[in-house]
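Box 3.1 A note on notation
Throughout this textbook, protein chains are presented in two layers. The first layer is the amino acid sequence; the second is a token string describing backbone geometry. Keep the layers aligned when reading.
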Amino acid sequence: MKIEVFTLPNGEDITLTAYLLDSSDEMPNMKTRPAVLVLPGGAYHGCSDREAEPVAMAFLAQGYHAFVLRYSVGPGKAAFPRPLEDAEAALELIRNRADEWKIKKDKIAAIGFSAGGHLAAALATMGRVRPNALILGYPCILESTSSILAEPVPSLDEYVDGKTPPTFIFASSEDKAVPIENSLAFAIALDKEKVPFEIHVFQKGLHGFSIANQVVSKDEEYLHANRFVKPWLDLCFKWLNDLFDFI
């Protein structure tokens, strides 16, 4: 595997880390691969390590190339649409170098968590370039979540259109930080525009559960509380592999 870090136009702290799997003659069906762009959460105050490399590693294990974006965060810097500009620049870089990196340029997904989910949804609904699939984990969607974020955000359910890519959503109904109405509002908007989607609302699970394993858990209590949401990852792989015909 090769790892490269690229600095994007909005500042030297705005980076895209590329995790590129090796090709091998022993795996002839892996000469080109789909890819995933990972957008960690962090309330637009920061980018959570728990929703960055561990998520990329999970997708790498499934045969995807993976990219992690560290986008504009903090008061002032995170003012919309600057983070969206970062996400657009990241996706453009991936597509522009798709041949070199052996990426299927029409099979690039974006996955975002919490505020990163807001950014992923913005990229998929408002971006001048858009991913081919969208995955949202307990996403901030509504303007009402601005109170917990570094900067005000628009309600992205209002921007869903026929060009919004197929979407997979997972969340917990007991999430106290980002109410489930955010995920539901986006799903309803997708339905109105006849955009294919799948949604999984787990009864239990704390906000920020990421891939819900020992690696990303803050302590044993946190790990135990999130044991019910672990299936989201396998469900997501089944959905995305089918969408990208990557089985």
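The longest helix spans residues 82-96. The longest strand covers residues 103-113.
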